[in-house]
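User: Okay, second chain of the day. Same drill as before: sequence in, structure tokens out.
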Amino acid sequence: MELTGPRTKNLESVPAQTRVARTGSPEIVFGPGALADVGCCALRGGARRPFLVTDPGLVEAGWVAEAVGHLRLSGLRPVVWHDITPNPKDHEVEAAFAAYRDNSCDMVIGLGGGSCIDAAKSVAILAGNGGRILDYEGVDRVTRPLPPTMMVPSTSGTGSDVTQFAVVTDTVHLVKAVIISEAVVPDISIIDPRLLTTMPEWLNAATGLDALTHGIESFVSRAHSPLTDRRALDAVRLVVRHLDRTMDRPEEAGSRMAMAQGALEAGMAFTSAILGATHAMSHQVGGLLDAPHGVINGVLLPHVIRFNARTDPSRYVPLAAAAGIDVGRCSPEDAAYLLADKVERLADAVGVPGGLRAVGLTEKAIPRLAATTLKDACMATNPREATESDVEQLFREAL
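Assistant: Same drill. Structure tokens below.
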């Protein structure tokens, strides 16, 4: 293919580009002690009364008090909202927005894991667009600007602090509603690896496997590009090398820094490349059972790798190499299957159960979950087409 120069006539005949990559990313403040910048960043963003969304665990750990102290030192008057549970619910988001509105707040800060950050993004969506949060499920339904947003992740996995995704549980239908819009990308992400040291072990394992899933799914996604490929491979390399070590040495700086970077790069990859069948299926299980998202991903991912690799395993070869597998003498299919095996061993090493029965899934629920999986936005970029029967079989293999 050769590139062409500019045109001034017959513009309608210029062919549309099929491989244009689009990405949006926040300003990123990264490193130990970065939380100290939360006040000056909020002030620079125009805040006077920021609304800080968090959860009781972050309050108990002391990170909320430190953040509030920095905000007050900058002359701001923060309002703290901590009534957020894992897998944030539609009614929790709407209650938080009512508090934002009633307190005349002018910026949204999310401090916590993916649940807090998704809830914070959702509050900002309602602040800028009105209505109910489930009105915005799908792609590009957020049409009006949001107030300034800043996210401070306390886990190393979800990547929500840099992405155009927000996920909220629809409590009527017991499914996860996925909101995708470039307007949802935060303005600022403050990544302080110190916050990772207070995660419980199960959450460290779950979010680390979530980051690994982001890296693998974004690399094989139909929407991947050179902008996302390198970040995805870096994320896989960092998570495979360092997740297990953070379980044994939670306060070791080097591994925590590596996992923070891995989560960041995975988030920056999948915000553009989107994801695949693992996430589409995981959203359904999480919505039904309110189970940990990263744990479900860790169980499902090896099965999805094998399913996708049966039609075209080639994209899994660089991923296997990034995961430390010697692919020099492997066929592409063997490399993909070795990668799936390695994911299973890592999940087992960090304490993730071997099947979905452990989180409460039953055979009876599978047909319903398979049907809703096919409607999930992440299925559109899975590298292999899947039927409802295919998805049912994947769920059964993962039980």
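The CA atoms of residues 7 and 13 lie 10 Å apart.

User: Thanks, on to the next one.
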